[in-house]
């Protein structure tokens, strides 16, 4: 019987780890992706799209979730991939990107073609594979890695290859990456093809309307924890320190909730409470101040003020990347005094 309970707890944790809750920006991104895919069936010129966001904003999970709605299948001994999701390889150049795309389509020998084909030839081979696999959309993740440290001429060449694939395969291309992935939109060959750019932001908290959005997201996650009654994670004693320790980063929010759930289940509890978060954060943030141990009025709140950026004009590599910036920490009592 104890083994059965243990298995149930494990399944409960796995279910929560794999659950997906859409907040407003994610819902908007998925709606735009669905629109691009639907437009493909209509034919004509295929528009493209950019999805940008800082680390932990949920870009990769969004791609995974969307692709899972259109799984591959076999038809006449050919693997059909309605949505091809790939990422820029470790050697970020155009040839490697094209080869990676073919490999993700199932062209396992694609790496052997490097000696015989250059960019245009690889692009043509990719187009044939896309048609054979009946691919309706390409999503390229971590796209910023392809344009970092590149000259104007190199970025133009990247834009030209993407244009070639977009036109000849007649399918939309979605580029996903850090905020500076949007630099590709400065290239005339590519800018006219972009139907929209969607940013996946961090949650904010200082404004009441933003706090409501954050609360809605936390309630959604609480409903996925597998208890008969969802835990009251939206209470101030949990909500405020949770934002304090995560600063609105989606991945970090999920990580802490997973840890708190694990603590609760290990104690045979039928809900998640504040003291579970205390234990979870002590384990995750060793040696750091734990906001769950503070009085509510003393919990410091800080939210994003400016997202990370890339200065391609800098001659010093360490100064090319500017980290995400956050507001000064405001004690909750000061926040309450403003509302």
Describe this structure in words.
With 339 residues, the chain is of the alpha/beta class. The chain folds into 2 domains: 2-20 and 203-301; 24-199, Rossmann fold, CATH 3.40.50.300. Helices cover 46% and strands 13% of the residues. It has 13 helices and 13 strands. It has helices at 2-18, 24-40, 59-68, 94-104, 119-132, 144-147, 152-169, 188-191, 208-222, 236-246, 250-266, 274-284, 332-338; strands at 48-52, 73-75, 78-80, 83-87, 137-141, 173-177, 194-199, 300-301, 304-306, 309-310, 321-322, 325-326, 330-331. Strands 4-5-6-1-7 form a 5-stranded parallel β-sheet, with helices on both faces. Helix 1 (2-18) packs antiparallel against helix 11, helix 4 (94-104) runs parallel beside helix 5 and helix 11 (250-266) crosses helix 12. The N and C termini lie far apart (52 Å).
Roughly how much helix do the residues carry, as a percent range? 40-55%
Mean pLDDT: 90
- Biggest β-sheet strands, sense, barrel: 5 strands, parallel
How many strand units?
13
The best one-word shape is: globular
How widely separated are the two ends? 52 Å
Number of helices: 13
> What order do the SSEs take from the amino end to the carboxyl end, as H and E?
HHEHEEEHHEHHEHEHHHHEEEEEEH
Please name the CATH architecture of the largest domain: 3-Layer(aba) Sandwich
Number of domains: 2
Quick summary:
By secondary structure, the protein is α/β, with parallel strands linked by helices. The protein folds into two domains: 2-20 and 203-301; 24-199, Rossmann fold. It has helices spanning 2-18, 24-40, 59-68, 94-104, 119-132, 144-147, 152-169, 188-191, 208-222, 236-246, 250-266, 274-284, 332-338, and strands at residues 48-52, 73-75, 78-80, 83-87, 137-141, 173-177, 194-199, 300-301, 304-306, 309-310, 321-322, 325-326, 330-331.
